[in-house]
Amino acid sequence: MTRTTDGPPGPEPATAPSAVAAAAGAPAPQAGPGAAAVPQAPGPDAGAGPSAVAAAPPAPGALLGPEGRPSESPAPTSRLLARAALLTAGLSVAAALLGLVRDQSLARLFGAGRDTDAFLVAWTVPEFAATLLIEDGLAFALIPAFSAALARRARGAAGDPVRSLVAGTLPRLASAFAAAGVLLALAAPWLVAVLAPGLPDPALAVDCTRLTASCVLSFGLAGYCSAALRAHRRFLAPAAIYIVHNVAIITAMYACGGRWGVRSAAFGVAAGGCLMVAAQLPSVVGELRRGRSGRTDLRPAAPAPPLDIPLLAAVLLFALCRQSQVLIERFLASGLAAGAISHLNYAQKVAQIPMTLSMMLSTVTFPVVARALADGDTERARSRVEGDVAVAARLVLLGTAAVVALAPQLIGLLFQRGAFTAQDTAATAGVMRVYALGLLAQTLTGILVRSYFSAGRATWYPVAAMAAGIAATWGIGACTAGSRGAVGIAAANAAGITLTAALLLAGTGRRGVPLRAGAVLRGLGRPLGAAGGATVAGGLVAAVPSAAPAGLAAGAATVAAVFLLLGGAPGVRALAPALRPVRSLPQRLAHALTTR
């Protein structure tokens, strides 16, 4: 299914509570958990609160924001965020559909046997790289850092803090990514032996792993570009990277599969990583040039501060722990019958689509939360995160109901062709139903961890919470894999991530954005009940028609109708910002036609 500064010397201290600001010698405001008082409706429209520190006089030509403070751009409105979320969701849907085509092609060309299992062991590398370097890891550290740099640029800091941040971090990170990729390629035989000791054909997995090792560098650079663009509120290029990546893998499999076998898919992973960087680089260069051209203060900038090692270590360890669930699953499944790893993989790919779509809003609003904390506005950050939880939880519960109710029909329609048999469909559907029970916790974990790292400070509580979940996954999986097979491993995954989500929610008041845990839990009661009723009704309806497409369509309509009738959907007030651009579409089209 994937977050981290500088400041020249001058009269103004940095308002961002980031480690880089601290490295520059500026005090970091500590927003206490009880700072917020009056609840606000979820949304970013609330004006920014008073700055935590006195701002310097605005630089000549600086754009003045609320209360006369210099501002590089106005605070994002609900309409802007809704459009960005819809754009990101649309491109993510396209990427998810291409991901299904990729998995369908893999199943059609190579089935669900030893060749596919060997590739999926090598697929662990891009999975980890995407989580660590694009989604949950590096972005947690870079987006708050870029937000802090943008805030300092808006207050008229000397030089250009954004360009100074890039100069101080990108070369070092790129060198580290390259070194890690080379080391991984050299250690491929030992890595395969550790990940899947029971694999029938380890040599094939080693070859594929050496090809996919190149994505450590390409994904790292892609993640850096993505974090920079999101902090600048540019979401088009970052949302398109998985589209080009999947296109490269699909093309490579069909073009070279007959000659190279499953190694062609690994080659596609390597080529797609390069395309991910190329898709974003023009936008990043454009933003850096735009920022330089608008500067009128020619004072020299301070030297770039060193990387915040504790913060970077905390976010990367969290992402590593979270992604290690996949390692546990494949390690335990490697000792089962051939195809178990593939069944787990296909089940996860389909089940995670609702989770991915439900988190699009939080992906867009994470820079908003980071900027609010950089400005000292804790209340706006809290209302934004709570609103994201409310909307995302309802969306993922609707998707969970559909996945559980329609699992056999979905897997059969998507994968049952070529070398993928009816037995594979039944096994994958059974795994997917159990795995889907953890989707709500997966979504909550992805949103809540942002509230810990959005302030740009190192905190180890998320790592401890994730480690507890991993321990539960390992313990339960080791006990159930022998008797329940892949289904037992999926149950262990769901139980472990649920424990992590509970711990993260319990700890937000003291360590992250101070959420009201009781209110969040109470808000989940009705959509949970609606999801349960929709699952039962949709499953009964889907089993009636004899044709799979008819059963799938009837079951999906039933799930949606029952979920809405039982009150599981967000209220009109919560959906209004997202629906406003849709409502205004006819007027915009009419205006465009009449003005030609």
UniProtKB/TrEMBL annotation:
Cited InterPro entries: Lipid_II_flippase_MurJ/MviN, MurJ
Domain of life from the UniProt record: Bacteria
PANTHER family named among the record's database cross-references: LIPID II FLIPPASE MURJ
UniProt KW keywords: Cell membrane, Cell shape, Membrane, Peptidoglycan synthesis, Transmembrane, Transmembrane helix
Lipid bilayer topology: Multi-pass membrane protein
Pfam family, one: MurJ
Transmembrane segments: 80-101, 173-199, 211-229, 235-255, 262-281, 395-415, 435-453, 460-483, 489-507, 528-548, 554-576
Coiled coil: none
UniProt protein name: Murein biosynthesis protein MurJ
Subcellular location: Cell membrane
Biased composition range(s): Low complexity: 15-76
